[in-house]
Amino acid sequence: MSRDLLYELIEALTILPGVGKKSAQRMALFLLDKNKDGALHLAKTLEECLAAIQRCEICRQLTSETVCRICSDESRDSYSLCVVESPSDVLAIESTGGFKGRYFVLMGRLSPIDGVSPDDLGIPDLLRHIQGAKIEEVILATSSTVEGDATATFIKDHLEGVKVSRISYGIPIGGELEYVDGNTIARAIQGRIVI
Amino acid sequence: MSRDLLYELIEALTILPGVGKKSAQRMALFLLDKNKDGALHLAKTLEECLAAIQRCEICRQLTSETVCRICSDESRDSYSLCVVESPSDVLAIESTGGFKGRYFVLMGRLSPIDGVSPDDLGIPDLLRHIQGAKIEEVILATSSTVEGDATATFIKDHLEGVKVSRISYGIPIGGELEYVDGNTIARAIQGRIVI
Ligand SMILES: [Zn+2]
Ligand SMILES: [Zn+2]
Fold it and tell me: What is the ipTM of this complex?
């Protein structure tokens, strides 16, 4: 039996989240038959991105640069800082267009059981960052899970002289930000309450 | 604003069929954060496949080899030949596991209005191939559209001394093979009728 990369490509595509065998087949044939230029661009961009990907040295978001696009955007408001759990939360909030401040990505949430400590989440860096920069408001957008709430409370308890709010109504209890629609996220940010 | 390949990758992923902005974001972060090895393998395989992709010189299926995996598989029955419209139809029938013969991919269907002639579909090659090989049955699996039926009739009318059948009940009228579930396709192949 010949090697036939067509089948290897279909197999390779099934690693994508939400992509089964049938979708992978459709994608493979589309890439090879209908949009070769787009396919080549996708392959090259993925390779380049994998080689360059790192954490932004300011906010810890994934980026191909030393400083991410958001942190290096001078037009953004640097007085409010939104603290989130994961890179996808940044993209989810950005897609609403309703927030023009900066972010800090914890890359997780406090969990003594799983051994996730404040140090693991870069919280000391976060606290130093908040004192050092001229931030006036910290918006805690960690998830509405027990650990997400505990993480928010921990950060709030270690901050002084700065307004601290928690995003509020709209986000379903136990829900993950990345699966929530943009309007709900935008409303939750507008309706945040000082805690 | 920095270049930040993360956003270029998200954009590049939205060319995939069925993938919107939100899915593309999820895919990009998954590839860059959760499965870098799989991501690199995907990029390399896609590039290699794009450079090598061609039509099988026997059946016209897309393949990275001169002769595709199915045509070069000696264990398959070479007495029955299934004629389909597109590469995805081959994959759809293969996924049922119910057919062990060979294929011929027309890459379209007859359409005088759109200027698609028998020559464009390689039908002269197909007829020569059927006479030359020891094929006993030709299964016409073109779509149940007006053009698909006309294509099947045209091929049948140009064949002699060979059993010709048309896949039958199960395929919804006007339906495309690739969107039909495996059981329905398998039943349609079993229930084919000589025409
Ligand atoms: Zn950043
Ligand atoms: Zn072949």
Answer: 0.82
